[in-house]
Amino acid sequence: MSRGNLAIALTIFALGFASGQTRPQPTNPPEPEKAEAPKTPAAVAPDATGLPIDPKSYVIGPEDIILIKVWREPDFTGPKGVRPDGKITLPLIGDLQAGGLTPDRLTAQLKQALSEYVKQPDVTVEVIQVNSKRYTVTGEVNRPNAYPMVVAVHVFDAINIAGGFREFANKKDILVLRGDGKRFHFNYQEYVKGKNVDKNILLENGDTVIVK
């Protein structure tokens, strides 16, 4: 290459460098978003005890928290949150269906599953937090809120659990709304006088008690 051509090439390179015209750098493709891990259930006190439910009739549901106790087996002992799919996970056993079962029925299934790893396992299942079954009391009561349905609750009991009436509450026409569109009326004043006791219905999961 002649000196003249070399000088021209160097001049072009210098002009390109000064104007920021550099070779484009390869870009890495964006990393795929990572799926979030499922959230763990709320913290449970180490001294938590079972609720006063009937282990033969209460049906465990999603988001309930149960306490599994296996005598002399700490690896299998502890609180478990029931996932939305109704299952729990245990070491070695893996996923096990809990939703839709009573504590007694789940105990029997756990004994069968653990018998492959533990000789004559001594298993206890308790429900320590009810999240799958709730009713709501709202309006002119002292503690309007959503309440866990640990045991069967009548309208009369639900109002008392919610702290009773405020000063100007209408005690003669309390409304119960049910998810299927049904509406029930309850006269508190008549009930305490022994009248229309059949109107003191048992609440169902999802019912709303409205005190005007």
Tertiary shape: elongated
Structural class: alpha+beta
Q: What would CATH call the class of the domain at 134-211?
A: Alpha Beta
Q: Which CATH architecture of the domain at 134-211 would you pick?
A: Roll
CATH superfamily of the domain at 134-211: Outer membrane lipoprotein wza domain like
Which range does the strand content fall in? 15-25%
Number of helices: 4
Strand order of the largest sheet: 7-6-10-8-9
Helix fraction? 10-25%
Radius of gyration: 32 Å
Any descriptors?
212 residues, alpha+beta, wza like fold, Outer membrane lipoprotein wza fold like, 5-stranded mixed sheet, 3-stranded antiparallel sheet, 19% helix, elongated
Topology of this protein?
Blueprint: H1 3-18, E1 65-70, E2 78-81, E3 87-90, E4 94-97, H2 103-114, E5 123-129, E6 134-139, E7 145-148, H3 155-161, E8 174-177, E9 183-186, H4 188-192, E10 208-211
Parallel strand pairs: 6-10
Antiparallel strand pairs: 1-2, 1-5, 3-4, 6-7, 8-9, 8-10
